[in-house]
Structure formats: C-alpha cells, structure tokens
Design goal:
The chain contains 15 helices and 14 strands. It is of the alpha/beta class and 415 residues long. The longest helix is centred in the middle third of the chain and has 18 residues.
Amino acid sequence: MTEQFRDAPIFDADQHMYETAEALTKYLPERYAPAVQYGQFGRQTRIVINGRVSDFIPNPTFERVAAPGAHEKFFAGENAEGQTLREMQGRAIEAPAATRTPEDRVKELDRQGVVEAINYPTLASLIEHATADDPELTLAIIHALNQWMAEHWSFNYRNRVFSTPIINLSEVDAAQRELEYVIANGAKVALIKPGPVNGLRGWRSPALPEFDPFWRDVEAAGFPIVLHASYPPLDSYVNTWEPPHTQNFMAMSAFRWMVLGHREIADMLTSLICHGTLTRFPKLRIASVENGSGWIFPLFNDFEDLQKKMPQNFPEHPHEVFRRNVWVSPFWEGCVSDVVNTVGWDKVMFGSDYPHPEGLAEPKGFWKYAEGMDVRRTYDFMGDNARRFMGLPIANPDPDAVNPPALVAPGGGAA
C-alpha cells in the first residue's frame, strides 16, 4: 500500500477564537447595554440576553475551557465506555493563548504545521438565536462584535488568519451596510447563520428575492460567505417532543441528537437553490462548515426526484447549482471520498474545529482517520480547495492543478 502523502500545505477551514468578556459590550451603544449581561449563578458564569439566562455555552467568558479535542473519542465513535461528553472531557484548562490573540494564533499555526486558517467567533452561535425576537438588538450586538473583532484580531492577520465577521440578514439595508463595513475593514470572508431570519416582515428565508440587493453586493464584491453551524433553529420544535432541562449541548439526550441532526444547513442550501438566489447570482461562493456531510447525499436524491416532478421550478438542475456554488467542509471523522464523489474534488475542504473539544486536538490528527488520498486529492482537500473558495492562489505546483479534476459520480463513472 502506498504511504499517504502528507506534505500538502494545510489551509484549515474551521478554527475558532474564544472571545474576551468585552467582545459583545465594548462597542455596544449604551442604550443596549442592559440587554447584554454576565451573571454569576453559584460557581458558574452565564450570559444573560434580554433578561434570559443561557447555558448553551457553558462558560461564555472562556477563562477556562475544555481542552482541544477532548471529545474526539465520542465523535470518532470510540466511546465504548459510554461516557458522557462532560465525563470524557476531564478537567477544564486555561484558554490557550492562541485562542485569544492573532499573534499567538500564528505561533500555534506554525507549531501545528498549518499555513492559513479561517477563524470563527464562538459566541456568535448563541447571539443571533438569543436575540431573534428583537432584530434591532441583534444588529447592534453583531456590529459591536464585528468592531471588537476588527480591533482585537483584525479580519486578515498577515494573510494567514482570516477572522470572520458576522452578517445578520434580518434587515436587508442593515446587512448591506454591515457588508460594506467589514469589507472596508479588510474582511476576506464573512459568516452567516444558516436559517431563516426575523425582520420587519416576520420570519423569512434570506434567499427570497427581497434579499437580492444584499446578495447582489456580495457577488459584485467577489466575497465568500460561510454558513457555519450555529444554535439549531429547530430547537424549539424538538422541545415540543422532549422539553429540555438545559440548553447545554453536552447534556443533550439521544433523541435530541438524532432529531436535530443537520437539518438547518440542508434547508438553508435548499432555500438558496429553490428560491433562486444561486441562479440569479451564479458567481456566489458559499461554504458549509462544521455541518457535517451526511445530509448531502439524501439532499441530492431529493433534488433529483423533485426536479423530475417540477422541472418548471428549476431553470438549472439543482445538482449543477450546488456543485457550482457550494463548498463543503465535512466533519473530520467523516468520509471524504463520499463527499468528493457527490459534490466534486474542487469543493471539499479540510477543517479541524480547533480549539473546540469536539474538534481535533491537532489538525494533523486528521491523518489517523483519513481513508487514503492520492497526491492531487491531498493538495485539494487539505488546502487548495479552501484557497479556491477564498479566491487565493493554490499551492499545488503541478500546472494541471488549476483545472479541477472531472467529477466522479457514485459508482465510479463520470458525472
């Protein structure tokens, strides 16, 4: 058996920061200050948004955190002892310096053997859900967080750490202004929560034509957008089946794990295709990150079936639209070849989820789970496809690497 090639320059499409306690409040206008508080409940610090306490993120100030990769055995399906996530993670540690500053992150990237990384905020997954009933507050907090991020991390640190501002689409005009702000301040990529948004006209798909002015600006700027896993929008639905005793993901029941799944990303991409955004703006670059990949093949099957039933609703085949516009970063424990065979070699990206406990302790720990990739696929998956998504030069020195390989359909035939 040929030894796995491991020398491709790594671009990690899924790393995170741990925000400081002032991240949400330093630039928040005073009139909104009462809506964002940190409270002490016994020995635990909790974030309180609009008077509602959340434990979705166990320690929202991140002084002490679970060690990177602490839950690796759980997500790798190697939990023969039946430990809970809390039992598996052991004692909390002081947040690594690399999670707090860009200077320390670059040192950590050097140690990890990673060239570039996309760096997402952690608190963002909570904020948009917690403030969804007050769009004005959502927009104010998100802008304050973006201002803090621009100051504390910068959106592009030495062309190696690409921190992602958040854009909330509850108001189209406000989303356009935020896009203009982040691009003017050096952002190279932005984060949007996958799910419907609550605005002046109630809950809506952000792919409806009324949002076209925003997507037109995104396309004109050649600006990539990541749909990163977030607080699940179906949580309230699952609560009707099984009322939760906590929002903490580490204490979710087996039923909740199964039902929540990753429906939100499948629905978001379905809306972008069925509501026509990706056809009206065919140059958009959209990435799904930390949403896994198990939902892709069923979605492709459903699209194939629906397109035959309702061809008049699809000016382009949904598969072609997905393969043209959408990149995917599967879970590190997932099967890369299955995703490649469905969406294409040029659209699948590596992500470690460092420093989160559900991620890998080390990005290169991926090789333990890799099913074997040839040199070309290794270059593409471990770095160059993320560079294609970001609009950066690829690293593969092979002149043919600028041309993505032909798509190989499930079963081995050309698509």
